[in-house]
Amino acid sequence: MTFDASILKAYFVCGSQDVDKNQLVPTVEAAITAGITAFQFRDKGAQSTLTPTKRVEAAQQLRDKCAQAGIPFFVDDDVSLAKQVNADGIHVGQSDEQIQAVVDEVGNQMIVGLSCSALSEVQQANTISGIDYYGSGPVFPTESKADADPVIGLAGLQQLVSATTRPIVGIGGITVNDLSDVIATGAAGSAVISMIARSQDIQATVTAMLHA
Ligand code: TZP
Ligand code: MG
């Protein structure tokens, strides 16, 4: 799948640790039906509630559902799982597998995203060819990531956007009320966990993302 920045508009990130037991697949299905533009399987090792086998099964199932809907399926921080399920993309953080190694290994076949929280990280990443987009540091305080970097705020997001020609997706504590502010920074969209995973009305939530 070729990369187009429009897929970053309504980017849902989720793993078993973010939802009640057995709710991962139904939640992602509802989000796909509602119109998300991309999905990232972020099932975090220690926090995952899935066995290794069930984890691969869930990834494969969600991968297939994304393919049926024509939206890209990303895997967070697990190149071998991404390859195993033939993901459209891989997303890594600064402390995950070295970005150059990831680009070298799968850059030809997958979309590559990198988390950049600080200006220096964006500047460094700009020198590496083959990265398609950046995820920001947490824009607002988040309850979904225990080891999140310091909050950068909307001004921090805008600073990152200004430092690169690559598209940036905002992430971290984004609620429905923040969506237009995030877009106003020049970000290509919002990536969210709880806004969708804990939504009482996933259709309305995703529609708001699409219209921001
Ligand atoms: N990376 C930076 S903040 C974050 C990740 C994965 C968590 C985002 O979750 P939420 O619930 O949308 O704040
Ligand atoms: Mg990571």
UniProtKB/TrEMBL annotation:
Q: Fetch the Gene3D superfamilies from UniProt.
A: Aldolase class I (3.20.20.70)
**Amino acids binding 2-[(2R,5Z)-2-carboxy-4-methylthiazol-5(2H)-ylidene]ethyl phosphate:** 142-144, 173, 193-194
Q: Which residues form the signal peptide?
A: none
GO MF annotation terms: magnesium ion binding; thiamine-phosphate diphosphorylase activity
- What is the reaction catalyzed? 4-methyl-5-(2-phosphooxyethyl)-thiazole + 4-amino-2-methyl-5-(diphosphooxymethyl)pyrimidine + H(+) = thiamine phosphate + diphosphate; 2-(2-carboxy-4-methylthiazol-5-yl)ethyl phosphate + 4-amino-2-methyl-5-(diphosphooxymethyl)pyrimidine + 2 H(+) = thiamine phosphate + CO2 + diphosphate; 2-[(2R,5Z)-2-carboxy-4-methylthiazol-5(2H)-ylidene]ethyl phosphate + 4-amino-2-methyl-5-(diphosphooxymethyl)pyrimidine + 2 H(+) = thiamine phosphate + CO2 + diphosphate
SUPFAM superfamilies given for it?
Answer: Thiamin phosphate synthase
Provide the cofactor list for this protein: Mg(2+)
Q: In which pathway does it act?
A: Cofactor biosynthesis; thiamine diphosphate biosynthesis; thiamine phosphate from 4-amino-2-methyl-5-diphosphomethylpyrimidine and 4-methyl-5-(2-phosphoethyl)-thiazole: step 1/1
Q: What is its EC number?
A: 2.5.1.3
Q: How is the cofactor bound?
A: Binds 1 Mg(2+) ion per subunit.
Superkingdom of source? Bacteria
UniProt domain Thiamine phosphate synthase/TenI: residue ranges: 11-196
Annotated positions binding Mg(2+)? 77, 96
Q: GO CC: one term? A: cytoplasm
Q: Which UniProt keywords apply?
A: Magnesium, Metal-binding, Thiamine biosynthesis, Transferase
Q: Which residues bind 4-amino-2-methyl-5-(diphosphooxymethyl)pyrimidine?
A: 40-44, 76, 115, 145
GO BP terms, alphabetized:
thiamine biosynthetic process; thiamine diphosphate biosynthetic process
Its function, per the record, reads: Condenses 4-methyl-5-(beta-hydroxyethyl)thiazole monophosphate (THZ-P) and 2-methyl-4-amino-5-hydroxymethyl pyrimidine pyrophosphate (HMP-PP) to form thiamine monophosphate (TMP).
Instruction: Tell me its family.
Output: Belongs to the thiamine-phosphate synthase family.
Q: Which HAMAP family match?
A: TMP_synthase
**What is the protein named?**
Thiamine-phosphate synthase
Gene name of the encoded protein: thiE
